[in-house]
Every structure is written in C-alpha cells, then in structure tokens.
Amino acid sequence: MQILLIVSKPVVKDLLSINIKSFLGVDVIVRTNSAEAVDLLAILPEIDLIISDKESAFAMAEYLTNNKKQTSLIVLGDKTEEISGIYPITQFLAESDWEEIVTLSAKSLGISDDILKKRKHSEYTAIPVTYFLNLDSSCCDVFIRIAKSENDFQFVKRIHRGDTFSKMVISRYIDQNLKYFYIPTEQLEQFSVYVSNQLVKKLAEPIAIEEKIEVLGNSFTIATQEILRIGFNSSTIQLTESLVTSIVDSFMAEEVASPLLRKILNSKTGYIYQHAHLTSIVSSEIIKNLGIKDKHIHEKMAFAAVFKDISLANNEELAMITSFEELENADLDDEEWDQVFNHALEGAVMIRQFPEAPLDIDYVIKHHHGVQNGKGFSISIKDNNFDVDSLIFIISVEFVNELLRFKIKGGTPKPLIDELYKKYTNSESIRIIKALEKTLKKSVNNGSKS
Ligand SMILES: [Fe+2]
C-alpha cells in the first residue's frame, strides 16, 4: 500500500511521514507541490490515498475529478466548498492533528482498528545512541532491539530508569555499530524534555574548550533533529538558545580565532555542526575586524549558522553539497535533489516560527549560498542585491566550504581569497574580504596555518 503525501513544510512532512510509516507500516511518498504530485501519479496511478496540504489541495481535487479517479483525499486545512464540491470523497483535518490523520488514513486503507491499536500500544520508539553520549542517567527504561525473525522483535532492557552510566558504556555500543536504543513511545515527549534540559545544563558548565566542542556538537545534532521531528516547543527553544549563546561565547573567550577553528575542525563532531560553528566564528571575526561593536550581530550570525542547513539535519551527505556542479554530479533521487536545492529557503521559513528570532535573520539564511530566492547555489553573484549582513554571511559560508572541503578531501588548497576578490566586486564585499584577510594574516603571524 502506498500513500502520497503532498506538503511543502518540512516539519509537517516529517511529523506525518514518520507517524504514518510507524503506525500503519505503509510506504509514504512525499512531494512538495501539486505539479510534482501529478507527475508522480502519471507513472504510479495506483496510489491508495492522497494527503495534501491546502496549497495543493484544489489542484489535486481537480486532477482526480478530470481523471475519473476514486482515490481518497485528505486535505490538511479547513473545509472548503470549492474542493468538496468538485471532489466529494475528500476529508478535512488540521495538519497538526497527526493522530486523527493516522486514524483516518487507516480507515481509508482498510487497516482495522485492532491492528492500529496494537501498533500504537506495542510500539517502542528508536532514539539514536548518540543522544545518550552527554547523559549520565535516563528518565525512562532503555532497550535494545533484537530480531527474532524477519518481522518479530524482542526488546531487551539495557538501562534502567534512574541508573547512572558513563560515556564509555555508550561509546562501546557505538563501537559495536549499534545505531538506536528504544524507549517506550508513551515516554517520548518526557524523554525529549529530559535530554534537552540535561544538555542546557551541560552547556552552562565551565569545562575545557575541547570538551565543550563535543557537547556543542552533540547538542547541535539533537536540537536540529528534534526541531525537524517535533518543531519548536519549550525544550527545543531553550536548547537552541543555549547553543547560540555558547557559540557566541566561544568566540568572545578567545583572543585569536584560529586555534578555535582548528579545534572545531579536529573534533569528533558532525559536518553540519562544524560548518555552523566555523561559519559563525568566521563571520564574527569579520565583524570584529570591520570595527562593528554590536553583540546582537554576533548573535544573529550564530543563529543563522545554526539554522542555515537545518532541513538537511538528518542527512549530512546532502549538506556536504555546496555548489551546482556537485549537485548535478551527485547521485540523488528527485526528493533529495529538491531537498538540497531548496534548503536555504526552507531554513528561512523555519526560523520565522522561532519566537524572538533576530530581525531579518530569514534573509541572511535564505541568501547563504549567494542566491536571492534561496534556491540553489550562485555561480556568479550580483553583490549589489544583498545587504551587508547577508554578504558577511555568504562570504563566510564560502570560506568554510573550502576549509571543510580541504579537510575532508585533501588535495591542493585553492587560492581562496583571490577567488573571492574575483567573484565579489562591489565596495562592500571588498571591505568584507579585506577583513577576512586580516584574520588570516593574524593567524599566520601567530605561527599557525588554518
Ligand atoms: Fe547550505
């Protein structure tokens, strides 16, 4: 059985596809708009159910009517006569009401209540093992899953609620290639709050910078993945705010930035986190060298750095694509291609839901690959079209792309500053590149190469 889900918001997409897959055990194919959905239906006409956001709903109702289809349609939004008038087998539900959406989908697909109830009650939820690296106890029992046969699993308790454990214990599971622990689904919400609170506490502790970077790396991954999974709630908001503060403080605490950049590059942390923290530090260096004395701008850059690639938080490989050429050469399916192509725009849309986000930060995120509408990557850039904050951020992102490319792939380092001067030619950009150059010269004078 297959469900076609047409939604443009990444949060809604994750919320619904994860829950439908885990409760109903059916395939969910995701498209972001009606044109893509219609293309798909041309090659896969036997879809059992269509769930559409309100933006695409009318076009889908029209398509189904014109093609004399009898596929059930669930629309995420208020009932409208316009749609139900042309396609009577339509039901309307709020996009946040995932439990009702799952139940109604089960009904449309003929999945009986018994099976649904059993699935709802017997489910454990998978939690990445890395979530436990910065915890020393858990608020609920923690299990591992052992396969008895292809579809039959046994859950074995490994950590009791309230027990203390060391990082070593968790690292051993990771060394053995265990990817997930399982916790009872009913305690998921409570667990998410518990993890966030523990991390917020850890981030505030005075610890050596190397250790801090590891805690930051883990907190970053958890915060971004939790935001994608459940959106903003008090604990993900608090964790994000602690992250931003810690990133800004890490810059303020150092006289010279290059040792910090090196420590981040050499840490055992993920790509997206490293890219974010490095971009924030490089932007802050530029701001300092430009003589701007406003702490809010440092905060704005750190916020933008945390959110710029958030829609790719579950797939580091996709975040490593930083140019059109790499995008065209990568072996991606349509959905992944779209995800990379639209990620700057999606980050900008998500930050608008964050309470008290810095003013105009969505523009900085949308522009981070040098494109005005947040789609794709710039080849040449019209730098007069961007404000100073965006230009600082775009140039920092480009610099960090090269730092990380060189670290991961090696080869000959590009004469990056020369290339930046060729690409960015207006007077504001030249001032920014000069400010970046000043930092690089400072680090060479300090005997370090970064
Ligand atoms: Fe990006």
Topology:
Layout (H helix, E strand, L loop, with lengths): L1 E5 L3 H15 L2 E5 L2 H10 L5 E5 H13 L5 E5 L4 H6 L3 E4 L4 H12 L3 H10 L1 E5 L13 E8 L2 E8 L7 H9 L4 E5 L3 H17 L4 H22 L3 H19 L5 H9 L4 H19 L5 H13 L8 H4 L4 H6 L4 H8 L1 H9 L9 H6 L21 H22 L6 H8 L3 H19 L5
Parallel strand pairs: 1-2, 1-3, 3-4, 4-5
Antiparallel strand pairs: 6-9, 7-8
Helix pairs in contact: 1-5, 1-9, 2-3, 8-9, 8-10, 9-10, 10-13, 12-13, 12-19, 12-21, 19-21
This protein binds fe (ii) ion (FE2).
Entry summary:
The protein has 450 residues and is of the alpha/beta class.
What does the model show?
By secondary structure, this protein is α/β, with parallel strands linked by helices. The protein has three domains: 2-117, Response regulator (Rossmann fold); 124-186, no CATH class; 206-445, Hypothetical protein af1432, CATH 1.10.3210.10. The protein is built from 21 helices and nine strands. The radius of gyration is 24 Å and the shape is globular. The termini are far apart. Fe (ii) ion is lined by residues 308-309, 343-344, 368-369.
